[in-house]
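Tutorial, part two.
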Amino acid sequence: MVLLAQTGFQQPNMTSPRELITRYQSLFIQFDKLRSTRIGDLQRAFDRLSAGFRAARITWSLQQRKTADDFNLFEVMNIAGDEVRHSKLLAWLVDPRIERGTHAQGNLGFRLLLHELKDDLGQSTFEKIMTHAQDADYWVYTEVAGDLARVDIEIAARRKFLIHIENKIYSEEGEDQTDREMSDLIARRVELEVPDDTCRAIFLTLHGSDPKNKDFLRLKWNRVAKVLDVFADQSEPPDVKLFARHYAKAIRKLTIVQRYESERSDVEI
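Running the prediction step on this input gives:
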């Protein structure tokens, strides 16, 4: 309609079919010329934008040749969005056992995670679990099956504490999943003779999604990335430092990409 207005379009008088046809032929010619002009303007603007992009990309490529800031081990291995891999990597962070080809930093990762969760756990629970964690006399298992569900990570010490972590990257919570996992956690607590106040369930997601069972604590993956940053700073082996930093970087990028895709999906709907 804007283009029509710019051609001086007015509703023609219906005097005769011939006059009507002549008027519309003239109008079409004017409209087509104006449209061609606009298309040319858009094409020239696009060409300028493309040239600017190519120049910026060349400059960026030359800089990256020296620094490779965007290189990330986890993206190269195509496991950045693999939920099972993330569970194993988080287990690697908190596992103190040197026999399993781990980071050899003892309970450092678990202590740092507990500090990040201090407010969520509450002061009393935090202090009790932290005291037990100092001994590094606890186990870390993945894919632990219960009577009703399977939890991604279990961190526990008999008669001391029990933590279950349900990890979500792209998948949604299954039907009654956290309710079933809570029932299994309670049964596991009784089996291990763990006090109620040192038994917790955590729902770990990219953006802090609410679990259906409200007894779960919410945890965002970007908070785990913060733990990895501190872990990298405090670890001694260079390879462990590098690995932890790469993992933290992969988590942050994954969080940003997932949010962008979610927002784009909402717009398309």
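Residues 76-268 form one domain. In part three we will examine how such features are distributed along the chain.
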